[in-house]
Amino acid sequence: MKRNANTIKSLSNTRWSARADACRALYNSWDEIINALITIKDDTFEKCVTRNESNGLYNQMQKLETSFMMIFWNHILERFNASNKQLQCVEIGNDKVSQIYTSLINLVQKTRDNFDEYETRAKKISKTTEYNFGISRQKKKKLHFDEKTEQPTELIGRDKFRVETFYVIIDKMTNELKKRQQAFKAFCDIFEVLLKITSLNSLEIVKFAEKLQKMYPNDLDNTFSSECLHLQSYLLNSDIDIDVNNLTPITLCQYLREKSLHIAIFPNIDTALRIFVSVAVSNCTTERSFSCLKRVKNYLRSTQTDDKLNNLALFSIENEMLSELNCEDLIDTFARTKCRRKPIV
Q1: C-alpha–C-alpha distance, residues 330 and 263, integer Å
Q2: What does the alpha-carbon distance between residue 164 and residue 160 come to, in Å, rounded to a whole number?
Q3: What is the pLDDT of residue 117?
Q4: Cα distance between residue 225 and residue 58, in whole Å
């Protein structure tokens, strides 16, 4: 089946989505880009600089390493972009983040064993079977009189690209993903008493509750462990209308508030749950909103007040909620207040 051609995009240094789109466009439009470069470099009416640049890009895309990295990064960035969008979802909790990072780590580690598959696909696209590392001349080290005459073993061609490029990228990504997974896991371990409250025994509940209470002494009272024991007994009651097997911190917090149990019976648990669910998994949504400030305030709108700027930024961040509101009454009130036309008598 023929791949659909997409418009090529410039590389972004900040967003995973932009990088994934750039790689996808390059993958889907590989043949079209090659044909366009051939047309430009062979056009005698084009400038010499343009023809030389297109010829350099054409020679670069003809290399086996370029097609290999294009296929490899298109696969990796597609999964990273999907996971990144899920991490920016409002409904996701910190307890689910570690599972997403674990899946990415397993994916990257499995990709390490798929070098032959990527190489086969790259050879079909680039129509070449030689690596650039194997074409270049090997450097010989000058030996002193007291050194051995044996030259050190140097990798060339396929082995050098696999060891010094492919494996290095895989190992670097794995280490970075493990760092982020461990950070979220350490945070969730502090709230383990709330995440596994129905499966822990009494001694474990008291132990983990005291650990959480020491982390937030100004927010949680000393009766926090007693509330946790009481909450476990309440949830294990067969008469409650909540599925304890699929219990999450968000659903538990909502349930306590719906039943008005957060005021007198479980006030500290409600505070701990609100602390856990309010810690943002990602701040990319807010950063993306503030990256658009130049559209709101620039040298032509330099007199805008801070209150108006903050309100516009809040509208941009909560645009989904704003789109669901009915603003007809607000618009009519604003129109009547700001109307400067005098009625004709």
Answers
A1: 35
A2: 6
A3: 92
A4: 67
